[in-house]
Amino acid sequence: MTSRALTVGFDLDMTLIDSRPGIHACYTALAERTGTFIDADLAITRLGPPLAEELINWFPADRVAEMSDLYRAMYSEIAITATPAMPGAREAVAAVQGAGGKAVVVTAKYEPNAKLHLSHLGIVPDAVVGDLWAEQKAVALREHGAVVYVGDHVGDVRGARTAGALSVAVATGPCDAEELLAAGADVVLGDLTELPAWLSAYREDASLA
Question: CB within 8 A of 93, min separation 6: which ones?
């Protein structure tokens, strides 16, 4: 493998960013705006799947599309500044790019909001693709030629495997290391601070293959 062939995909929520504070604030605001009870504390323990899969727990099915639009309209004003980068996120992306590779963010998050998060935090990937979840992520991963996909959820593992990419999981989201391994992750790291060293070893092994 040459450095030009190195494309690494990254999930966003709970992989590159700790989206819990911003999402909690947005769900709280949505509850106040609509007069509907939403357990924001519970909602942020199961981040990863698309927004509609959470909203269906709090709103009738025929209102989910409307509430999704309202949530997303509120999100940019409420959640962006409240959301920090995960430890090692900037360094992980920089390690890929510093090796001559491409870093591509593939996320279930609404793409415009995903880009706002990355811009606010000064994380500059080579591409951002939103609105894809689990196996759907394989479409973008294949399109960009990703050989590795890094994520925190078993859905990310499924996306990587569907794309034929190496699944590197970080145990920083709702799924623990045991769940991630059981789902088929090839590698499980504690967090992204471990990725640069792992990537260096991966590239060395690949060059010897």
Answer: 10, 16, 103, 123, 124, 125
**pLDDT on residue 208:** 67
Q: In sequence order, what are the residues at sequence separation of 6 or more whose Cβ sits closer than 8 angstroms to the Cβ of residue 62?
A: none
pTM more than 0.90:
yes
CA 88/CA 58 separation, integer angstroms: 34
CA distances from 84 to 23, 24, 79 (A): 12, 13, 10
Residue 148 near residue 206 (C-beta atoms within 8 A): no
The answer to whether residues 118 and 105 touch, using CB atoms and an 8 Å cutoff, is yes
C-alpha to C-alpha distances, 181 to 34, 50, 119, 135, 184, nearest whole angstrom:
40, 22, 32, 17, 5
Condensed to tens digits (0 to 9), the pLDDT of residues 139-170 reads 999 999 999 999 999 999 999 999 999 999 99
Assign 85 to helix, strand or coil.
Answer: strand
Whether the CB-CB separation of 201 and 174 falls below 8 Å is answered with no
Round to whole Å and give the CA distance between 112 and 116.
6
**Calpha distance 63→13 (Å, rounded):** 25
Question: How many other β-carbons are positioned within 10 Å of the β-carbon of residue 100?
Answer: 12
Whole-angstrom Cα distance, residue 74 to residue 155? Answer: 26
